[in-house]
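Researcher: Please predict.
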Amino acid sequence: MLPRHTHDCNACEFHGYFGGYDVYTCGQGGLGSTMIARWGNDGPEYQSLPVQLYERVADTSPLWRGVKALIDINTDPDQSYVMWK
């Protein structure tokens, strides 16, 4: 499975799709791991959230709950890539 949108960071790990978003994690930046949801090819067409802040937004953000669930599934060695539309 390949991302649908251009992403310019070689350090990011692609996890699949959630809704219209390509989902990545990245360890660069000094804040620990970051979740990324990209919806387009232009540089600023993405949202990101440090994993350490996830609990603060989980109750109010269906996007980040779905992104986190997809990442959790795809980082489990017993699972394979999953696509959620």
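Model: The CA atoms of residues 58 and 65 lie 6 Å apart.
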